[in-house]
Amino acid sequence: MKRQFCIAGIIFILIALVSVSTTAAAGTVTVTNPEDAAAQVYVSGYESSPAVFYPGESGTVTVHVTNAANTSVSVSQPALIDPNFDVVNSGSFNSVTNIGPGATTDYTFVVRADGSDGTYLPHFTVSPNTYGAKAINTQIKLKVDSTDIRASISAKPDYFAISKKDSVNVSISNPRSGGISNVLVVPKTDSAEIFPKEVYIGALESGNSVQVPFSIMPARGTNVTFSITFLNGDNEHTTEVVLPVSLDKNKMGAEIVVNNIETSSSGMTTTLKGDVTNNGLTDAKSILVTVEDPARPVNPNPIYAIGNLEPDDFSSFEITYVPAGNRSVPLVVEYKDAEGNRFKETFSIAASDSMALPGAGSLPAQSGTVNSGQRRGMFGSFGSGFSQIPVTEIVIILVALALVVYAWRKGYLTSLRNRFRKDPLPKGKDEDDDDDEPVEK
Questions:
Q1: In whole angstroms, what is the distance from residue 380 CA to residue 402 CA?
Q2: How far, in Å, CA of 291 to CA of 305, rounded?
Q3: Tens digit of each residue's pLDDT (9 = 90 or more) over 331-358
Q4: 300 shares its domain with 380
Q5: Residue 424 domain-assigned?
Q6: 441 lies in a domain?
Q7: Structural domain count, the chain
Q8: How far apart are the first and last CA of the chain?
Q9: pLDDT tens, 219-257?
């Protein structure tokens, strides 16, 4: 059984060898003398790397020489000749090369493009080592182009806002007549958070372009430099585009206004009440209200969570804290936008206003100080919304008026007046009696 298996294996190997020999010989021309064999040698193709040279750039030119005869041919003295291209490795082809039947050999020339922009036709030649055979000659086409890739900022906001994330697009196009590879975009700055840190594009063919998105959240006004590196053949090139990050208030964002400030003290703690209004054009989300140093927030309301406010909507808040002498109190409102960016507005309340009787004040949309612009009434203030109407005071007044009317109708007011008169009537004399009339006995 083992012997039969070995025989079958030998037969299979012989069949494979015959198939390889047949394949190698396929497509060849049968010749009868060396001169005819040399005539069957030709240039079957070529390529250059890079496909298009920058002026002064180095690269390689590879020429493929094929032997179509059914017998080997020896060749030597390959050369690439053009005054606009300097062949760096011309001394590497001194040996004789044997090209087998149907085989191809490659000659790789390392060249430097010394010419200006244009298309060139270097002359390639190689000589068969056969007496009477003619040299193989052909022209190949090489291009030199100084056109660089284009990079620009194709999309960006008019202004950026501190700690707010905005999107920009870097546009990269390849106007060259040849493709480039290993395209990489890396943003550089020391005053902004940028995501992603880099973007790898890869190949960019001639006439194509690509949009590369980035998110930028600046800490201050700055410049962001986008560095685009790429390979033209094996040569690395770099181009840059600079994005000025100009800061301004986000015109489409939320705008926080704090007003109707009221304060009251109890022992060591102070209670601060007011309204937070969204005067902007987009929602303010996850709103938190508290105070900062030198004030110290304490229970029961160290932090007040309002939640979300739509444009033109408002909500009341109440904060308790321990003040620090006569120093001003920073009231802090934190919120987020729809993308999760955090914002912080600080409003400074002067100590004199914090210690004042309950009243209504207002704070500007930006950080400021509440001073003497408050409107105070007898019982407090009427703020915006029904929640600000002093219902308790109104009820007390109405009850007091009702009691006065009732006492007047019952005559209690007259009795009370007589009781407190400074000169009481003589005994036996009526209030309506004349002083000159004698008192009856």
A1: 23
A2: 13
A3: 999 998 887 778 888 998 875 443 333 3
A4: yes
A5: no
A6: no
A7: 3
A8: 168
A9: 888 999 999 999 999 999 999 999 999 887 667 778 899
